[in-house]
Amino acid sequence: MADWVYYRIDLDVQGAITQLPDSQKVLGALIHRFSETYSSAEATQLVQAIKENTVPLTLSNILPRGYLPVPHTELLDQLSRQSMDSKDRKAIYKAVKKRLYVKGAQLEEIMSEPQRAANIYPYISSKFTQQIHASIDSKRYNLPGLDPDLFSVPGVIIQEVRSEQTKELVREYSFYTAIERGTEGERLLDMLKLEANRAGKFVLGARGSQGLNTFIIKDVQEEMSVESNAAGYYLNMGMLLPGQISFDKSSLKLFTSERRPYNPPGGWDKNHHEGQFISFIEQGSIIYAPEGVGHAGESIPSPSFTRDIVFGNALLYPVSKEETS
Q1: SS (H, E, C) 13-32
Q2: How far apart are CA 72 and CA 252, in angstroms?
Q3: Confidence of residue 263 (pLDDT cuts 50, 70, 90)
Q4: Backbone phi, then psi, for 112, in 5-degree steps?
Q5: Pairing verdict, β 201-203 and 63-64
Q6: d(CA 325, CA 143)
Q7: pLDDT of residue 143
């Protein structure tokens, strides 16, 4: 059986962010840097190998460092089967939903007893915001096409909640990758280690020119080796396109996105009317994958660009879960 090695890549954020980047954005940034470090031809070969699963590789979303996503669907399903006062149920639901990420030890606690969610600290929450920006005054500088006006950019504030009174802005993040030992995927890991040594910058999202969504790689650490999880249950940590999983035994939350051609000068192609919709399994879902992490996800060809792929090999983190009838 394949020997998968899990690695944690630590990052610090510079400035503000508009969202926490998902595993697809992470792969895009890594492949772009891979092409700069090695060559475009080698990057194209790597993408093809990932699609064909000859280079087994999984990635997580960007996460607050030291935290794991809370499996909301699983917890709310457990709570729905418990007898309790409606007022108490509403309070517990609210406490569960506020906790977007918790520590690993807390994850085991909240999965075994979700009614204790309100007592779990610290945890990670988020809130959306708007940042005000001003464009260049085109009349003063004689630059036609730039309107002299104000505009806002949506953003997100990620906070560590240590108590009801103590909250702190999160500046340290991580993502995980699992690579099969002895494969070409280790070249990607070598590149990440090189970037950590020189504090490489990665822009993971839009508006990098405005100083947003800029991350610095700080460290690469081996976490653990996994051959399989005897229980068969995993916490989904990225955007998963399902392969060999059991839908009946999984607790899933779906995210559907539209795929249309994008051209940087003009934005989304408004003449492209054939909407391509793809549904992913979101982070925080509990996945039952009896065949193991190497067969749970897959990547598919892009519906818009023949050379690209839609990356669906999300990282799965082994968890314990009691069987329910």
Answers
A1: EECCECCCCCHHHHHHHHHH
A2: 9
A3: very low
A4: -85, -30
A5: unpaired
A6: 67
A7: 56
Rounded CA-CA distance 43/188 in Å is: 10
Within 13 Å and on the Cβ side, how many CA atoms surround 299?
Answer: 29
Beta strand 201-203 pairing with 214-226 = antiparallel
What pLDDT digit, counting tens, does each position of 99-121 carry? 999 999 899 899 999 999 999 99
Residue position matching structure tokens 């309100």: 118
Structure confidence at residue 298 as a pLDDT band (50, 70, 90): very high
Lookup: tokens for 100 = 């977007």
CA atoms of 217 and 198, how far apart (whole Å): 8
Length of the chain: 325
Strands 286-288 and 233-236: antiparallel
**Identity of the amino acid at 255:** F
Distances (CA, A) of 183 to 106, 186, 189, 213, 236: 34, 6, 11, 31, 23
- Give me the residue label for tokens 């939350």: 253
Q: Write phi, then psi, for 108 (nearest 5 degrees).
A: -60, -40
**Count of CB atoms situated within 10 Å of the CB of 148:** 13
Count CB atoms within 10 A of the CB of residue 51. 20
CB 105 within 8 A of CB 320: no
Across the chain, which distance is largest between two alpha carbons, in Å? 71
**Residue 291: CB atoms within 10 Å:** 13
What is the spatial distance between Cα 291 and Cα 122, in angstroms, rounded to a whole number?
Answer: 34
Reference 133, options 155, 116, 101; nearest CA is 155
3-class DSSP assignment, residue 181: coil
- pTM across the whole model: 0.86
pLDDT in tens, 124-164: 999 988 766 555 555 555 555 555 565 567 889 999 999 98
Return the structure tokens found at 149.
């006006």
